[in-house]
Amino acid sequence: MHERSVAIGGNSTREMFNPKDDFSRMLLSKEGPETCNSYNMLKLTRLLYQGSPSASFIDFYERVTYNHILSTQHPQKGGFVYFTSMRPQHYRNYSQLQQGFWCCVGSGLENHSKYGELIYTHNDDALFVNLFIPSSLTWKEQGLTITQTTQFPHQDYATLTITGKATRQFKLAIRQPNWLAGAMTVHINGKAYRNFTVKDGYLYINRQWQNKDVVRFSLPMKLAVEAMPDGSPWVAFKYGPVVLASAAKNLPGDIYFADSSRMGHIADGSLIPLDATEPIRFDTAALQKYIRKNDNELQFTMVNPASATSVTLQPFYTIHEQRYTIYWPLLAAGKSRIGEAEQQLMLTDRVSVDRISLGEQQPESDHGFTYSQSESGIWNNNNWRSTRDSISYSLNNKKGEGRSLVIRYIANKEGNAFAVYFNGQQISVPDIESSATLQVKTMVLTLDAALMKSLADQKVPVTIKAVAGKETPKLVEIRLSRE
Ligand SMILES: [Zn+2]
């Protein structure tokens, strides 16, 4: 939660955690946090909270609820999002009725029915107000109804009205969120109330409650900046608990509604180079000078010094069917390690017809993976798979554009050979390189252009076979390339 979650509260890329000290994959990938992961984290958070009710659990719950979960349903059409990319100026797509029923559609159906789940909780003598969501609670055992009225986060206060036949003594515990800009104030029936105590992130009001008592409390919010957890020079902006984003220009060919194909859930449109996103040139310690809140709206104008244009920031959960930017590079980002990885990715993305990251569950199952005597693992942030017998996939030869088969493997000192079968035919493979220290090598196998044209838009099988039962090197990637 603290070390692997991005600003929206989600985690993982392509369903895998990234190393704690390197979130570059998160920023580069078109497949960011998966909605199911956040769904599960909310379940876990609720259980932990029930074991020890501390407001810090609800801080996380609120972050995930507003910034990930709420953003994952199309507000008019109802479709659900699988991956929410953190790559600047990328996008997500939505499921459609009767087309595709992914895990994130199943958990998605539940997600949006559960907003009421943790607004209130209670123990023997206290009622906890955890979330600031307009709602009404009937507390049967106490013969009470509590009504919460608020337009939070558009408004920085909420009101609780307590109704019941008899007077009651109980503690009302209101959460003090971790993003407060100043002290919370409480008014009861219009009068300032200061007699509360504070424990585990809650303000406790212990009194004899009367029918129609009204409690109003403030929730002062401020702009804040949040760095990537690995400390790399990338930042997101928040207002109170709400993560802000800017809508970016869509590209022709962006598909916002998924079909029922195996990889329809991935927003597969062009990657916009990272350096096309203007870096933040101001001192983020003086945010208020450069990001101004527009009147009466949850909308902000960011003016970057020396920039010709200003940028509008709005809650990420309000951006749909559009590209967006959540993470912004700081001026120093261009020089960081992400620069090289980005160059490599842009190059690969341009020439790739299809590609499989071996040893990763989703890409493998998306490509019809079958195996015999195979192992997988991670070395130096590379997922890999090897075999003592055979592994098979199918590659999508989109528009018949495949011209070569690229295989990346981790060369080791054994240098065991392996055989490659493409479209049922064995193709010749150069000698496998051996290496005293492990290192990633690339092999390019030229394909017959006429054959590839004749196989346009077909799924072409590729099989790797071990030779004489000797384990193949660890294979990292198989790619069908245009070049
Ligand atoms: Zn899922």
CATH architecture of the domain at 348-481: Sandwich
Helix tally equals 8
CATH superfamily of the domain at 348-481, please?
A: Galactose-binding domain-like
Using only C-alpha atoms, the radius of gyration works out to 27 Å
Mean pLDDT: 93
Main sheet summary: 8 strands, antiparallel
The outline comes out as elongated
Keywords:
eight-stranded antiparallel β-sheet, binds zinc ion, alpha+beta, 483 residues, 28 strands
Structure characterization notes:
The chain is α+β, with helices and mostly antiparallel strands and 483 residues long. The protein contains eight helices and 28 strands. Strands 12, 13, 14, 15, 16, 17, 18 and 19 form an eight-stranded antiparallel beta sheet that branches. Strands 3-4-5-11-7-8 form a six-stranded antiparallel beta sheet, with no helix packed on it. A hairpin with a 2-residue loop joins strand 7 (186-188) and strand 8. The protein is elongated, with a radius of gyration of 27 Å. The model has no long low-confidence stretch (mean pLDDT 93). The structure holds zinc ion. Residues 34-36, 82, 102-104 line the site of zinc ion.
